[in-house]
Structures
1.
Amino acid sequence: LMSAVELVDFEVHTWEATAYAPLDPQAVEGVCYSGDPNITASGRGIRPGVTVAAGPSIPFGTWLWVEGLGWRCVEDRGGAIMDGYIDISMVSRQEALDFGRREVLVIIPVWGD
């Protein structure tokens, strides 16, 4: 039996965002990914357009709303990804390069029992 969960608050942040595309055939190990490009740090398969890497204070499985992109799920980490930064998975390396580095509004819902 599931209990009702309700939105009790939300956090609003301005974070620096970059993008990566580990599944692109042009992806370069050590630049676009480390280790197995198919598997995220959470152990889940990479999902371009869904997966983001976030700092260690954001638990795996947390859904974020990212300005201009919509809902994304924290499923990865990165050596240079600290709190206040996200790295967004994309389908192609060119799409990631076109995204560049920019500040984005990030909203994190806070759920209660």
2.
Amino acid sequence: QSHASVRWHVIDWKSNRLPSYAPDALWQAMAEHDYLLQANLYLVAVHRWLRLRLGAGYRPFEHLGCAAYAFIRGIDPLIPGAGWVVVQPDLDLIAALDACFAPMEGAAHA
């Protein structure tokens, strides 16, 4: 089965009670609560899983999607995108974070 047109994403549902759910306020909440770090760690986990599952056919630029944060109190069905923050993967950062886990894996098998 070909996975050429399949992209895997992460969605994290947040119930934060914020004074505002405007885009700037959501990005501020992302920074204050370390959700950007969390998003990148989620993307590293998906990256590692896809590499394991798809093997040599895995292409991060094609298969690895984004990390989307849904601030459920700010979602408004009448306003497209309201309450959502989408973190696009930085493939260089994902590769660097992935490499940070490699020494730990070797030590676990020693």
3.
Amino acid sequence: KFGFNITFLAKPGKIGKIVGVEEVKALDNIIDVVKAYDEGGVVPNDALGTLQQVVIRVFGVADTKNEMIDLMNKVHDLIGVYSENGEEMLLEVLDTTTI
């Protein structure tokens, strides 16, 4: 089997909305979804380059490499973290075409 850990990093700021966590948890082959912040939480300015930038981690498995890539892409599409002003806070995610 193939395993993966997707780590979602956010820009500093106050989190207004987190979407997709429950949908990701419901997907087949997702082991766990761990949130480090809730809505209203603040990613501090001094978090840049540290583990404090991690907002969500998603752990999953797949039988094949292609299934893993498909599942990772689905997770990327579902998860969103937005500021109080509705701006996307997540940094760029892994380009799965490089796997």
4.
Amino acid sequence: MSEQKSGSELRTHGRAPIELKVDYKKLNSFFADYTKNISKGGTFIKTKKPLPIGTRFLFKLTVPHREAPFELLGEVVWSKADAEEPGMGIRFIYSSESQR
């Protein structure tokens, strides 16, 4: 009998709870939502309108006391629209180790 692992057991990197503003574009519309937690590998974005799984998009992550936001490429790896806390899980896509 195989056991199913929970989300936290599947993660490669530990998550830190934090709320940061996230700006991104879907088609011709701009969105501003907030993270719930973040790690080196990805983040959870709280939103009532998650993007489809597999969607890659560029988003800007506003960090306090930093002049310019971080621009990151991400991919939606899971989403939950009809949940108590709707949102989407994002995996960061880095162009190099130095970007990580």
